Every structure is written in structure tokens, then in C-alpha cells.
């Protein structure tokens, strides 16, 4: 379940989950980029869809690929009829596990986020 489908948190409140591992950080931006690559079939198209440059998108993919035992994204060489990128099983697992963790965290945090939101002005 993604944040978009989690109706439990108040409309104006949002829990943001970042996982800091010794190898690096996994957070909503990198996971959203992987999801966009899965939809778009290329790093550049995913970057455009997210409003980021190809270089920024490529740097994030490279960072993820360096962190994991197996790459999250497989880039295909360009040229006539070539190019593009696809998620590997490791990339798909990363998305699945992050979104499951995010959903569990949202469910656990909901009473506290609701309480914090009630303390805020306006």
C-alpha cells in the first residue's frame, strides 16, 4: 500500500519514512524514481516525469545500484531500437519492502500523527 492509498492519516498530516543503512539511505524519492522507471521504461523518461534532470535520475539510480548486492535497475544500451531501463528483481523487491514498511509505519504512527496534528494551529 502506498501513501496515496493510505486513508488513515489526517488529510493534512503525512509521515515520511527514510531508512538509513550503513550502505546508504532509502527514502520516498528513490523509491518513487524506481516506480517511475518501472512505468516509463527508461531513466530519462522517469526523471522527466518526476521533474528532475537525467543526470540527477541517473545519479540516484547509480547510488542505489552501488548500495545493493544486485542492481535495482538494468540499463539497456541506446541506439536504433535500443535504450531504456528496467527494474531487476532486486529493484522490485526494494519497492515492495519499502512500501510494506511504509504502510506498517503509517498504521502504527496514525494515533500519534493525529495527536500531533491536533496540536497545530489552523
How would you briefly describe this protein structure?
InterPro entries: LysR_HTH_N (IPR000847), Molybdate_resp_trans_reg (IPR051815), WH-like_DNA-bd_sf (IPR036388), WH_DNA-bd_sf (IPR036390). The protein is mainly α and 122 residues long.
Describe this structure in words.
Residues 32-92 form the HTH lysR-type domain. InterPro entries: LysR_HTH_N, Molybdate_resp_trans_reg, WH-like_DNA-bd_sf, WH_DNA-bd_sf. This is LysR family transcriptional regulator. The chain has 122 residues and is mainly alpha-helical. It has a single domain, classed as Arc Repressor Mutant, subunit A (Orthogonal Bundle), CATH 1.10.10. 53% of the residues lie in helices and 10% in strands. The protein has helices at 28-40, 43-49, 54-67, 89-119; strands at residues 19-21, 24-26, 73-75, 85-87. Strands 1-2 form a two-stranded antiparallel ribbon. Strands 3-4 form a two-stranded antiparallel sheet. Strand 1 (19-21) and strand 2 (24-26) form a beta hairpin. The longest helix is centred in the C-terminal third of the chain and has 31 residues, at 89-119. It is elongated. The two termini are 29 Å apart. The model has no long low-confidence stretch (mean pLDDT 89).
Amino acid at each position: 500500500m502506498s501513501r496515496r492509498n493510505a486513508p488513515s492519516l489526517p488529510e493534512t498530516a503525512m509521515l515520511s519514512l527514510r531508512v538509513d543503512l550503513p550502505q546508504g539511505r532509502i527514502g520516498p524519492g528513490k523509491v518513487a524514481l524506481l516506480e517511475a522507471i518501472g512505468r516509463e521504461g527508461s531513466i530519462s523518461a522517469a526523471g522527466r516525469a518526476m521533474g528532475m534532470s537525467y543526470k540527477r535520475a541517473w545519479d540516484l539510480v547509480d547510488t542505489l545500484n552501488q548500495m545493493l548486492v544486485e542492481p535495482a535497475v538494468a540499463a539497456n544500451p541506446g541506439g536504433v531500437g535500443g535504450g531504456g531501463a528496467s527494474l531487476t528483481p532486486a529493484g522490485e523487491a526494494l519497492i515492495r519492502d519499502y512500501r510494506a514498511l511504509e504502510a506498517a509505519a503509517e498504521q502504527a504512527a496514525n494515533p500519534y500523527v493525529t495527536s500531533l496534528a491536533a496540536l497545530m494551529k489552523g
